[in-house]
Amino acid sequence: MTFSVFPKFLATFTLLGYLTACGGGGGATANTQTPAPPTPLSVAQALFAEKALSASGQLACASCHTDDNAHGDATGTTLPIGGVNMGQQGFRSSPSLLYLASNTAFRFVNGLPFGGFTWDGRANSRAEQAAGPLLDSTEMANADVAAVARKVRGLTYFNDFVSQFNVPAAATDQQIFEKLKTALQTYQELDTDYLLFNSKFDREADGTYTFTPSERSGRDLFNNPDKGNCASCHTSRNGPNGERPVFTNFSYAALGLPRNMQIQKNAADATFFDKGLCGPKRTDLSTRTELCGQFKVPTLRNIELTSPYFHNASIFNLTQAVSFYATRDIDPRLWYPSVNDKFNDLPLAERGNVIRTAPFGQQPGDRPVLSAQDVDDLVSFLKTLTDDRTAPQGSPTVVAR
Question: Is residue 397 part of a domain?
Fold first, then answer.
């Protein structure tokens, strides 16, 4: 796995620390210059990149949430690998961590699930979300909170952590663990990469970029409820005060994705199913069978960078992902072992939960709602949602023309 956030941290630390002029007539050299003092962001960023926090010593938060891939899985990764000996495969892809600032704790609204963090919303904050991988046996694989705290105390910059996050003197293991969660949340709140708002889409809204014909067509298809109908879940309109959309309403949907046989648990056990809201990772909704198969609707910002797609990493490029919406029901043989085995990543009894609204809901052989050209145009539009990491952060609200 790539590990790209630490070089970014190191470059920032070096720039701030070693370009600080010492001044005076004392003949100071580069070797006597004092590094810049720690900040909450610099310490939190180091913790996000810290492999020593894992049982293997080889896995950090940044290993599965890389800078170059919109804080999703590293390029070339089908599913994340972790565990004590780095030999345990997870069964869910690592979603992008970007554009989650407006997300809320998990809740039901008029009986429908919204919010929460992770694919099944079981964490109610970024801090809670950060705790999960630290103790997950297939990820950073620490045995318990005490094991994590012991690793934190052993860091060379532990005193900086103490000072920047107000760790109590003689802090307990649990207190250190809670402060670590706070720090990992703080990194995501303070790093401007998490809310860049400077994509072509944003610049078009501000009047500084003009969509190509294909991008414009894709935008119209995206918003058309009788065509792509994408905006019904991936909100694309500005907020009431000009807030830019983050391209999700943080709802949940059962898409009926094809079973990914590259997932070891799927290949080893035909009775194993990842059913999202009703388990197996989430346990409090296990009896709500009407929710089985539902996973959180992700942001589409930077979707170009986050393949493979969907919670089970079953589709490997963006054109295929859009084509799935266009052809799932009219040509199921493209996606499933047989026409009679549609939605084969769910038990038979729960396949009725799968969404059938447009562009889904047709019968095999029907004329597609989305043509091949429509798919290409939608992909063109989706690529306008990619941030420019070489440019300054944009305004979170649309710039008045």
Answer: no
Is it the case that residue 240 has pLDDT exceeding 80? yes
- Answer yes or no: do 222 and 353 share one domain: yes
Q: 333-347: b or e for each residue (b if 16 or more CB lie within 10 Å)?
A: eebbeeeeebbbbbe
Distance, CA of 243 to CA of 253 (rounded, Å): 25
How far apart, in whole angstroms, are the C-alpha atoms of residue 235 and residue 116? Answer: 17
Q: Could you report the per-residue pLDDT of 332-367, keeping only the tens digit for each?
A: 999 999 988 999 999 999 999 999 999 999 999 999
Domain final position from 194, 227, 245:
194
- Does one domain contain both 165 and 237? no
Name 284's bridge partners: none
Tell me which residue has tokens 């414009």.
Answer: 216
What is the domain count for the chain? 2
Q: Is residue 390 part of a domain?
A: no
Q: Whole-angstrom Cα distance, residue 363 to residue 370? A: 14
**Tens digit of pLDDT for each residue in 14-44?**
333 332 333 333 444 455 678 889 999 999 9
Q: Are residues 172 and 122 in the same domain?
A: yes
The Cβ of residue 21 has, within 10 Å, a number of other Cβ atoms equal to: 7
pTM: 0.90
* Residue 163 domain boundaries: 5-194
User: CA angle, 160 as apex, 158 and 161 as ends, to 5°?
Assistant: 65
Residues 78 and 221 in one domain: no
Residue 35: the pLDDT is 82
In this structure, the answer to whether residues 159 and 246 fall within a common structural domain is: no
Give the dihedral sign, CA 276/182/94/234.
Answer: positive
